[in-house]
Amino acid sequence: MVGKATKAEKKIAYDAKLCQLLEDYTQILVVEADNVGSNQLQNIRKGLRGDSVVLMGKNTMMKRSVRMHAEKTGNNVFLNLIPLLQGNVGLIFTKGDLKEVSEEVAKYKVGAPARVGLVAPIDVVVPPGNTGLDPSQTSFFQVLNIPTKINKGTVEIITPVELIKKGEKVGSSEAALLAKLGIRPFSYGLVVSSVYDNGSVFSPEVLDLTEEDLIEKFAIGVSQVTSIALAASYPTIAAAPHMFTNAYKNVLSVSVETAYSYPQAEKVKEYLEDPSKFAVAAVASAPVADSGAAPAAAAEEKKDEPAEESDDDIGMGLFGEDE
Q1: Strands 200-202, 191-197: parallel, antiparallel or unpaired by DSSP?
Q2: What's the CA gap between 278 and 136, in Å, rounded?
Q3: What is the pTM of this model?
């Protein structure tokens, strides 16, 4: 009969497993595992099976293994993981798309009752309606100042009530009432807290950024770099077009104000001396179709007008033939 592994042997095996995972994977999701049960964790492992591995353990053991591996390989980027190993956390090593893996993890949430002393992760609101409880249970509602009435032999809540606020601890009365009403207000699962990608560490919100978001942020960054470069008169690729344009404007201004000239400035000077020339040129350069359409339209308009009456016709019309 094979004996059970000793505590020292378990540590050696754990170190070997974690170090091997660090060798095989460059992407790691650091997840919070508060209130996650063993069955739930097993379902998550099954759901991620294929390109991801879930590893749990004590923080001290994980930190020790990471330090050992960094010293052994001389790759200190693994040390960036150590500050992330705080609280009840685990590691998900993956070769898949980080966003897809994060979304898959989020699917495995399980409803949980409000236990006494638990800090509420969300606001808990009791909805109005018939509770199905007999009138002898009204004491629970009275203690919590919940307005009720008796309707057809059962207790009915009149208005929605905010029973517990986010961040507050669940009291015994609140827990008992929610249990009687069959309300399981909380849901728990692995929550991604940090992302490690080949030595870089960033927030999981980065995974939700779209290509449009990245382009917008890049454009804002380029605009800021350009503004700083122009203000400091420091040449950069982003500021160069603006610098050349501003320099040309300065040269052109000097040419306009002095006798010095060059071919590109002649047209500007000519315009400033007699803008009317350019107005005539603009009319002359109008599209041929438009210039041809104007006479045609004028001819059409003239054709539609009735012929003007002669002076004799006007006279005859006013005074008649007998006069």
Answers
A1: antiparallel
A2: 96
A3: 0.58
